[in-house]
């Protein structure tokens, strides 16, 4: 603990706000969890935020709370507009303060992003990601909305919050007033930039006047809209200065509107990939600045602060992955941090599907009251067969609870499908999960049997047997399929086989997309921030409004054909919030998509297919099979013969879709049941 100021002096430096002090430079950023709308949601949120406060974070910001009905995310979403709602919020603030933490409530008015027929905006322009066209606010409606923001802040103070964050970015209502793209008004609230920023400035002044000087006001400022006709850099600087005059305590960075076609938080974004834009604003104002997006490990946060990019670092999803992130960092236990891998599969994908958020690498996230960690009453002897995500999660959890666990792994390394995933460009973060579980297994004394394919004789004498034997690539029956230039996907991903310049990929699911991305990746691209920004057309010089430039054109490395039998959209099962990224990347690289295909035969010079009654030859050098997986159940059948009972989890239980989220959740849940 004593050497932490030397290792991470900036993370653990306090931040004096004048009337209060933050104990470190780490903010738990706002994120909607879905608990806000659930029965007993406030009790669940109290435990959720309480654990993060106990974990040592300097300041917490809640998910968005609407100031009125029109500002709802969706019907019956959380809002704070009357005294009757105050006591419910006190359950959260009391718990956070009991743990020695501080918490701000985010006031979020969705504007034209509101998924309901009552949504409003500065102008009657429908968002491309919403089916509802907003109603244009009248002058009196604008003034009433400002009063609602102010009232909401007052109620937040009464509820015990240490401050509020005003959501002025990501394309929500305030951002819609600021940007000419969405503000077409001709009155005092539109037209010139001075008129367009009147709305946010009036809100800030009104809140400051009503809550007093000793209350934190964070303004989430969109510093990079990433949409056409967004703000210019000069306008952003001017607004930041005016916000400081109006009374904000801190300015937080917002990156990209929800309708922007540039990835901002997915794993393809390099670590701290947008810290540079906050750095541009450093020195323009005197209030502290917070930077954000894809900062997930202590060395990243420390370097961002050391390089003068910001005064504070915001992380949201990393606190889903590990509520004790700060505490572990302070105690020199960085290897024990369960790292956010930016996959979005259990957090944002769930939220956009109107489900409760959680975390792929930590299924207890947002389920703290239903899935508490409880030490075992009686130690049992447990065998886990298979060291993929499901097996590692089960073994580590069971051992942490006090059981005696042996993990059998037929390969020389743990990881299963994650060993493949970490080789895919943009998925390198998956290696962090392998590091975490490996450390947990060692920490809790799991006996590891590497390179040992468990037999029935190995498993006698155990109280519980868990089969997490995973999957094998599914074979398909096509004439010529055994020819040398036909390769299963795992051989390609592990680099065991050479692939030609012209490739046909059979199967357009997640693995097919991954293989295509791997085969198209240019080894000359370092994959750092500069390459990412150039590839996606983000202009660091801000020569164009919104920070948009032209994406860099890269000559495709290979000719790739992606084929599927179904007539549905390729990659239909990809993540709701990330699928568009993968499709766009492949399209930019000239991938030819084929749907409704019948595979006829393989020949030396290519693959014969039938599409819409027309037979044709795809002249390719290599054919990669990504036609799904099958459960590896050989050992299960032997155990059945020996009349030994066992549990199936992960791919061994269901191979239809290789799903790490489900696999890890099953592993943890089963270990909890022992």
TrEMBL record:
Cofactor: [4Fe-4S] cluster; FMN
Sequence ranges assigned to domain FAD/NAD(P)-binding in this UniProt record: 381-636
Domain annotation NADH:flavin oxidoreductase/NADH oxidase N-terminal: ranges: 11-335
Single GO term (MF): oxidoreductase activity
A Pfam match: Pyr_redox_2
Record SUPFAM superfamilies: FAD/NAD(P)-binding domain, FMN-linked oxidoreductases, Nucleotide-binding domain
Keywords: Flavoprotein, FMN, Iron, Iron-sulfur, Metal-binding, Oxidoreductase
CDD domains on file: DCR_FMN
Entries under PANTHER family matching the protein: 2,4-DIENOYL-COA REDUCTASE, 2,4-DIENOYL-COA REDUCTASE [(2E)-ENOYL-COA-PRODUCING]
Sequence similarity: In the N-terminal section; belongs to the NADH:flavin oxidoreductase/NADH oxidase family.
Name of the protein described by the UniProt record: 2,4-dienoyl-CoA reductase (NADPH2)
């Amino acid at each position: 603990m004593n050497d932490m100021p030397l290792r991470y002096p900036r993370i653990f430096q306090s931040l004096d706000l004048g009337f209060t002090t933050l104990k470190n430079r780490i903010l738990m950023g706002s994120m909607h969890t879905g608990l806000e709308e659930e029965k007993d949601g406030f009790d669940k949120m109290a435990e959720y935020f309480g654990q993060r406060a106990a974990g040592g974070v300097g300041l917490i910001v809640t998910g968005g709370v609407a100031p009125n009905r029109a500002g709802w995310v969706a019907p019956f979403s959380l809002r704070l507009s009357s005294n009757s709602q105050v006591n419910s919020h006190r359950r959260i603030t009391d718990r956070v303060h009991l743990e020695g933490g501080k918490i701000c409530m985010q006031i979020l008015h969705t504007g034209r992003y509101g998924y309901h027929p009552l949504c409003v905006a500065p102008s009657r322009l429908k968002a491309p990601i919403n089916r509802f066209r907003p109603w244009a606010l009248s002058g009196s409606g604008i003034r009433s909305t400002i009063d609602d923001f102010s009232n909401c802040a007052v109620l937040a103070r009464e509820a015990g919050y240490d401050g509020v964050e005003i959501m002025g970015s990501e394309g929500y209502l305030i951002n819609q007033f600021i940007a000419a793209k969405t503000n077409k008004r001709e009155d005092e609230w539109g037209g010139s930039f001075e008129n367009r920023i009147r709305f946010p400035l009036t809100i800030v002044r009104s809140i400051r006047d009503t809550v007093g000087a000793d209350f934190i006001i964070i303004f989430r400022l969109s510093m990079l809209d990433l949409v056409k006709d967004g703000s210019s850099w000069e306008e952003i600087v001017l607004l930041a200065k005016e916000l400081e005059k109006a009374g904000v305590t801190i300015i937080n960075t917002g990156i990209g509107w929800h309708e922007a076609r540039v990835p901002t938080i997915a794993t393809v974004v390099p670590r701290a990939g947008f810290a540079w834009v906050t750095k541009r604003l450093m020195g323009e104002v005197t209030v502290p600045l917070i930077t954000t997006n894809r900062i997930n490990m202590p060395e990243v946060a420390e370097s961002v602060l050391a390089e003068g990019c910001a005064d504070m670092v915001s992380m949201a999803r990393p606190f889903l992955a590990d509520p004790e992130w700060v505490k572990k960092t302070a105690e020199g236990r960085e290897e024990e941090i369960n790292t956010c891998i930016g996959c979005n599969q259990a957090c944002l994908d769930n939220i956009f599907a109107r489900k409760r958020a959680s975390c792929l690498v930590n299924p207890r996230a947002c389920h703290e009251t239903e899935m508490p960690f409880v030490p075992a009453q009686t130690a049992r002897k447990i065998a886990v067969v298979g060291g993929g995500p499901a097996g590692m999660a089960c073994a580590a959890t069971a051992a942490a609870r006090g059981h005696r666990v042996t993990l059998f792994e037929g390969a020389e390394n743990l990881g299963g499908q994650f060993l493949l995933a970490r080789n895919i460009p943009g998925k390198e973060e998956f290696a962090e999960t392998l590091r975490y579980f490996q450390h947990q297994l060692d920490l809790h004394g799991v006996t590891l049997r590497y390179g040992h394919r468990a037999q029935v004789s190995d498993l006698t004498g155990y109280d519980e047997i868990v089969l997490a034997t995973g999957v094998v690539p599914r074979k398909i029956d096509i004439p010529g399929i055994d020819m040398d230039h036909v390769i299963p996907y795992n051989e390609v991903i592990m680099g065991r086989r050479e692939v030609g310049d012209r490739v046909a990929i059979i199967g357009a699911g997640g693995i097919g997309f991954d293989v295509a991305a791997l085969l198209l990746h240019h080894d000359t691209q370092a994959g750092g921030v500069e390459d990412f920004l150039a590839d996606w057309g983000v202009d660091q010089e801000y020569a164009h409004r919104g920070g948009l430039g032209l994406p860099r054109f890269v000559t495709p490395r290979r000719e790739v054909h992606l084929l599927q039998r179904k007539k549905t959209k390729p990659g239909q099962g990809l993540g709701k919030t990330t699928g568009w990224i993968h499709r766009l990347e492949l399209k930019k690289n000239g991938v030819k998509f084929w749907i409704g295909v019948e595979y006829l035969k393989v020949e030396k010079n290519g693959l014969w297919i039938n599409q819409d009654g027309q037979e044709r030859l795809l002249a390719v050098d290599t054919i990669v099979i990504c036609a799904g997986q099958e459960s590896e159940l050989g050992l299960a059948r032997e155990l059945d013969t020996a009349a030994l009972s066992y549990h199936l989890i992960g791919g061994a239980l269901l191979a239809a879709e290789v799903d790490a989220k489900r696999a890890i959740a099953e592993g943890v849940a089963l270990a909890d049941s022992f």
